[in-house]
Amino acid sequence: MSEEERRNMGSEESSRPIPGITGDIVYKNPLFTMPAILEPYKVGILSYASSMLSTTAGFPLDSIKTRMQTHSYTSALDCFSTTIKTEGVRGLFRGIVAPLISTSMSRSMTVSIYTDAKPYVASVMPEMQLDYISDPETQRFVRNFPVSFISGIISGSIISLFACPFELTKIFQQIVVVVNRDTKVNLSSETLPTKVFDVAGNIVKYEGWSGLYSGYRYHIIRDAFSAGLFYSVYETVKLQLQLKNKESDYFSEEVKARVDALCVPVSGAAAGCLAWATIYPLDTMKSRYQRDVLGNIIRVKMGLPKLDIAPGKLKIPTREMYKGFGPSVTRSICVTMIFFSAFEYLMKNIA
């Protein structure tokens, strides 16, 4: 093969966008072969299963994060101990049904939309001139970041329409006991709506159907930007680590395969941490607005007048807006490490 042919092949390879999430897969000895009728839905099914596992593992930290964003605790440990003391271990898992359904479904849909959107985004983006980079793999890596970022934004924006009502009911369940105590209206535990359908019914009853989208302006910006940042950072870090591993002369092929697998949770942790650190103040504003909506529902149930609340303008992040960040970023790291490890393993072992 001539040098010119090699360059042409390298150019074609570098211009081809990297497939979403997993990269190219060649099945040798798969653990299981999916029925042909389900094969088109493979990404969604496997990401849903992985998300259910990761959501369950990270939910207690998510509950602590929401409580700290919307109420006053001296520390995450104080929030944890107070919740255990007043509500028991069950309090940490209050509201888990909604995210098990919605978060798993939305993450599954997000991954599917992202994977499908990526080749289209790559096809309409203007070609980046990277002649100054000689290595085709490096060119491919550099081109992948903006494609991943825009594909993530598209995916996050679409999914926010589905996810917002479910997340609102989850937050309602997580903090309803605390809000009831703070508003000092003291509804009995039997009167408080704590189940998914009771919560949704109360929101619609007192706030109308639009109440299910309380705080949506924050939600869509958060989901779009975080998804764009999340997927682009995840793929960038993973591809860079795997590229360095591939070029290494110190490891055997067997060791390199193990290092490649380790790159997945490390990249997931990096992406989750950076994405949450960036969008956390916006998430806090959303949670506080939704808390006030919940407070009004409890007041009306007691025959008291509503308080005037309105979504505030986007603000410059302050330290106060990072309350609960520790549990949140810890949860994000755990969840993304578990999710991507499970998802990529299943994708590469189920044909």
Automatic annotation (TrEMBL):
For whether the record's keyword set contains Transmembrane helix, the answer is yes
Name the keywords, alphabetized. Answer: Membrane, Mitochondrion, Mitochondrion inner membrane, Repeat, Transmembrane, Transmembrane helix, Transport
Q: Report the locations given in the UniProt record.
A: Mitochondrion inner membrane
Q: Name one Pfam family in it.
A: Mito_carr
GO CC terms = mitochondrial inner membrane
Q: Which PROSITE patterns match?
A: SOLCAR
Q: Does the keyword Transmembrane helix apply?
A: yes
The source's domain of life comes to Eukaryota
GO molecular-function annotation terms?
Answer: transmembrane transporter activity
**Which SUPFAM superfamilies does its entry note?**
Mitochondrial carrier
Topology of the protein relative to the lipid bilayer: Multi-pass membrane protein
Q: Where are the Solcar repeats?
A: 38-120, 143-240, 259-349
Q: Which family does it belong to?
A: Belongs to the mitochondrial carrier (TC 2.A.29) family.
Can you name this protein?
Answer: Mitochondrial carrier protein
- Species name for this entry? Pichia membranifaciens NRRL Y-2026
What does the organism's lineage look like at the top?
A: Eukaryota, Fungi, Dikarya, Ascomycota, Saccharomycotina
